[in-house]
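On to our target:
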Amino acid sequence: MPDIQNYTLNFGPQHPAAHGVLRMVLELDGEVVVRADPHIGFLHRATEKLVETRTWIQSLPYMDRLDYMSMMASEHAYCLALERMLGIEVPVRAQYIRVMFDEITRILNHLMFIGSHGLDVGAMTMMLYGCREREDLMDCYEAVSGTRWHAAYYRPGGVYRDLPDSMPQYKESKWKNGARLKQLNEARSGTFLDFLQDFVNRFPKIVDDYETLLTDNRIWKQRLVDVGVVPPDRALQLGFTGAMLRGSGFAWDLRKKQPYAVYDRLDFDIPVGTAGDCYDRYLVRINEMRQSNRLLQQCIDWLRANPGPVVSDNAKVARPSRVDMKTNMEALIHHFKLCSEGFHVPEGQVYSAVEHPKGEFGVYVVSDGANKPYRLKIRSSGYVHLSAMDELVRGHMIADVVTMMGTIDIVFGEIDR
């Protein structure tokens, strides 16, 4: 009688659930996974080497391209590192704007998570719903930066510019006219903050709709409950952060434990799970969206009442205004130097981390006093979480591998960097 051997299967990178260019080599005993070997290297952006050839400010847009679902959160960590090394203060209004866009980014990320995770497991409607709400928030990105995706809106010392006084409106066409056009433009008739306020007012009911579709859905629970369980102590040993750690019962959130920007002035809770399975991690992210909505409301209220500068007045780091540049020779010189050579960062090293939507995102920067980084090392949560894939999927079925990949919420830009 011949020996029964395990079967080796290539899962991805062509698989629609691979969330990028992940290739996993699965060793199977029937349909049960015995071993999983995640392979990376099909993307390889080489971000950490590329930034060594660019000035400090030219390196900023590379942060957007790491996790292209959570652009501005990555920018924030990079800017915090530079500001610590430069010793510059960020205006309070700019800090509130940063927090506001961090939370917009968190909702954007979690909407994509719930849509793609639902699609992986079989709930197709969730992707359509998630993309519907993402459109409004992508319009917020576009309003302040001019682009819907890689914004490069944060700057060392603040943000690129203040919030706009008006939002772009839909124009009449053969697809949109009359009452429909008026309905679409109703929320866009005021300022940026008016538009965001309209979204904040609507969003809790929208999240309720998501939960109606999924939370008590018996198929959804059969696919997620008790799948990929990680005990609290093991989650710590594996280096989990974000929803992966909080789903296992640890209330660890850098916004609370190591506050940055103005998070210590704002009121919000940390959602925590108990079982450490895929279902708890889903619930944690759902509740994080609700908490982000609370934070957005507080930021809107503060920004309405407190006008002020949105970037540092240190002309060695931040470009002067266009008016100053055209009327003042000193400002013109600063503008020319910043645009041609960039600024120099004092010799030293610093590690700065933020509570990214996917976990702890850190930037370790080494400067030799030049106008470009000597070394830059990125601590991405997705890379750490993916390294635990073998342990997560052992003993589960092939179908559960898809669920596990969804719960990690990976984006390969920050993994194969």
